[in-house]
DNA sequence: TATTGTTATACTCTATAACTATA
DNA sequence: TATAGTTATAGAGTATAACAATA
């Protein structure tokens, strides 16, 4: 989605950041995607598992907000994950319209397998590119930018 | 795809970069996506248009490499874009297996409308977050990281 | 034989809107 | 009325493998 060309950024200095941001993410994705696929998950499914990981679960609405998956679509995605035994729907008493989605034991295992795996896999790309101080700087700048998008 | 939780990055300093990278890109995407939709393009279609923009066109194979869209899928995406009149298939003499995909006049107009539009739309998020020197730094670090992914 | 692009299949995601059951 | 989640529909993207034409 939207890898801009390296054309002359002209008078807009911020384009000098936008394109590298998008292109770096895409370069990352090219490594990441085949790796996710070996887990037998689609990107949307992976998104849900990653969002639920390290939480006590959340409602469908909340899950829809936190991922980029709309409510109607989510039902289908959850159906498949439920069939795979990775998530469960928990019915609550206090509001009987609401359903809490959370990882099953199997789902937690999946989540916990993914990340150490990924850590090992991705590490060299970062460490070959950047020193420790640079990582710290990069982190700080990215977080500032992220915040700006989120509050704007 | 893959928004990691803000859990303790532990002993792996590079995770302090990976998560902000992914999350910043997602924050950007949340702004970008609705904006693309107003153009009547899907993300995959937008990807193709953006990749073809400012080029003389390229073969289907090449286009498949530059986007994240596989060869078989691309046929369908191109069919739809051709029907919309945004791209055309040009048959070449030198290798009659190959077809060059390029933007039509209409496609170029679309491409040229998108970007100034986007520039105007996205600008404040960057400028409110970062000074000019910070942008320069961020750009440099991102490009180093990108290169590492691409050559690794 | 290898490569380019298309076709075929089967599944997943997507948006949207209407629907139900609760509140 | 409003909200939470499901269902229904139609379209689009996805991977994969087999295929025809060309090299």
Structural class based on helices, strands and sheet pairing of chain A: mainly alpha
Q: What is the number of independent domains of chain A?
A: 1
Low-confidence stretches of chain A: 1-9
Radius of gyration of chain A, in Å, reads 19 Å
* Largest sheet geometry of chain A: 3 strands, antiparallel
CATH superfamily of chain A: Winged helix-like DNA-binding domain superfamily/Winged helix DNA-binding domain
* CATH fold-level name of chain A: Arc Repressor Mutant, subunit A
| CATH class type of chain A | Mainly Alpha
Global outline of chain A: globular
Specify which chain pair forms the largest interface. Answer: A-B, 69 and 69 residues
Entry keywords:
homodimer; 152 residues; mainly alpha; Arc Repressor Mutant, subunit A; 3-stranded antiparallel beta sheet; 3 strands; globular; disordered N terminus; DNA-binding
Describe this structure in words.
The structure is a homodimer of 152-residue chains. With 152 residues, chain A is mainly α. Chain A has a single domain, classed as Arc Repressor Mutant, subunit A (Orthogonal Bundle), CATH 1.10.10. Helices cover 64% and strands 8% of the residues of chain A. The first copy, chain A, has 6 helices and 3 strands; from the N terminus they run ααβααββαα. In chain A, strands 1-3-2 form a 3-stranded antiparallel sheet. In chain A, a hairpin with a 7-residue loop joins strand 2 (87-91) and strand 3 (99-103). The longest helix of chain A has 25 residues, at 105-129. Chain A starts with 14 loop residues before the first helix and ends with a helix. Chain A binds a DNA duplex (23 and 23 nucleotides) through helix 2 and helix 4.
């Amino acid at each position: 989605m939207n890898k801009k060309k390296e054309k002359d950024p002209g008078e807009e200095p911020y384009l000098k950041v936008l394109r590298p941001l998008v292109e770096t993410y895409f370069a990352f994705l090219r490594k990441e995607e085949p790796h996710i696929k070996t887990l037998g998950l689609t990107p949307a499914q992976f998104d849900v598992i990653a969002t639920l990981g390290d939480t006590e679960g959340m409602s469908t609405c909340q899950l829809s907000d936190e991922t980029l998956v709309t409510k109607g679509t989510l039902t289908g995605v959850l159906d498949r994950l439920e069939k795979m035994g990775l998530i469960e729907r928990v019915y609550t008493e206090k509001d009987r319209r609401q359903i809490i989605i959370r990882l099953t034991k199997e789902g937690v295992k999946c989540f916990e397998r993914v990340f150490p795996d990924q850590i090992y896999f991705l590490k060299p790309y970062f460490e070959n590119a950047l020193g420790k101080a640079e990582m710290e700087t990069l982190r700080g700048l990215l977080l500032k930018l992220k915040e700006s998008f989120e509050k704007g």
